[in-house]
């Protein structure tokens, strides 16, 4: 025998296996999580102490290696505070990197858990990934390129005549509210509730000599984009709010899976940078202590 569920919105009868109402699309029970990732957990303090001990041993061994390679004579003339100061600065930098990495990791996990739904199945209160085309009644046009956009960011650089490098002479970022349209459904997207991940739209030289270069990132009108945000507002005029209090929504030209993978990769690279700074800082600190003892 099939179990039945009554829709709280239109009171239509649905089978117990349904997650949304067949008649009006209202949610009948929580959506299943499509991914099996677990939330990032904090590292216990005993493990931190063990890691610091290992780093101390690595630093002492590193100093002994410096002595064996006859590099001690080269650093003997340095001030006494040089190695401890450099080590402390590196350790502080590593902790900042760890904080940033944990933030990226938490963001990627929350973005990963948001289900992917078409606009026709997203209702007020849902935090979802959806996709559609950009429609804007009052588009903005960046300098140098006559293209109607909902968001753009450009940088103008000039070549240095002496050193041959580049110097930034102009940069600008601008965004306006727009609508995300999927067939007959649409949602209003305030520019202040989302962050933009735009593709490189133009990268070229502005003069024949190649001494002035412009690079433009843009979300032009009509571009298919992915949106991750929380649906809010009235049913007749839905809008999007930030995904969570500390996490704004996302508008990206990538697919949902590619964007989440990019954020997760950024977290891994930041963790790697943090551990590299920690190891170098520990080596510098222990080398400075060993130098004073010697």
What does this protein look like?
The chain folds into 2 domains: 45-110 and 270-293, no CATH class; 115-242, no CATH class. Helix content is 33%, strand content 29%. It contains 4 helices and 13 strands. It has helices at 45-68, 72-75, 82-113, 256-293; strands at residues 4-6, 13-15, 127-135, 149-159, 166-175, 178-182, 185-189, 194-197, 200-205, 212-220, 224-234, 237-241, 249-252. The strands form 3 sheets. Strands 3, 6, 7, 8, 11, 12 and 13 form a 7-stranded mixed sheet that branches. It has a 4-stranded antiparallel sheet with strand order 5-4-10-9, with no helix packed on it. A hairpin with a 6-residue loop joins strand 9 and strand 10 (212-220). Helix 3 packs antiparallel against helix 4 (256-293). Mean pLDDT is 80; it is low at 32-36.
Any idea what the radius of gyration is?
27 Å
- What portion of residues is helical? 25-40%
Oligomer: single chain
- Shape summary: flat
Q: Give the amount of beta strand, in percent.
A: 25-35%
Distance between the termini: 84 Å
Low-confidence blocks of residues: 32-36
- Figure out the total of helices: 4
**From the helix content, strand content and strand pairing, which structural class follows?**
alpha+beta
Largest sheet properties: 7 strands, mixed
């Amino acid at each position: 025998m099939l179990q039945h569920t009554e829709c709280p919105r239109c009171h239509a009868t649905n089978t117990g296996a349904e997650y949304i109402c067949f008649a009006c699309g209202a949610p009948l029970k929580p959506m299943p999580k499509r991914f099996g990732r677990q939330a990032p957990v904090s590292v216990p303090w005993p493990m931190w102490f063990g890691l610091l001990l290992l780093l101390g041993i690595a630093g002492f061994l590193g100093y002994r290696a410096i002595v064996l390679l006859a590099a001690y004579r080269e650093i003997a003339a340095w001030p006494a505070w040089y190695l401890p100061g450099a080590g402390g600065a590196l350790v502080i930098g590593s902790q900042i990197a760890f904080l940033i990495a944990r933030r990226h990791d938490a963001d990627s996990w929350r973005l990963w858990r948001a289900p992917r739904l078409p606009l026709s199945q997203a209702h007020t209160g849902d935090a979802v990934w959806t996709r559609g085309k950009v429609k804007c009644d009052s588009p903005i046009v960046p300098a140098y390129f006559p293209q109607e956009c909902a968001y753009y960011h450009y940088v103008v650089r000039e070549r240095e005549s002496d050193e041959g490098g580049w110097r930034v002479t102009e940069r600008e970022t601008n965004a306006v509210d727009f609508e995300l349209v999927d067939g007959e459904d649409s949602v209003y997207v305030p520019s202040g509730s989302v962050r933009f991940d735009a593709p490189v739209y133009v990268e070229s030289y502005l003069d024949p000599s190649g001494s002035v270069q412009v690079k433009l990132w843009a979300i032009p009108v009509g571009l298919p984009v992915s949106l991750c945000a929380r649906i809010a507002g009235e049913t007749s005029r839905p809008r999007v709010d930030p995904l969570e209090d500390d996490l704004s929504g996302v508008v990206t030209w990538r697919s949902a899976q590619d964007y989440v993978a990019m954020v997760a990769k950024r977290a891994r690279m930041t963790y790697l940078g943090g551990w590299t700074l920690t190891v170098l800082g520990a080596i510098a600190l222990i080398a400075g202590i060993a130098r004073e003892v010697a």
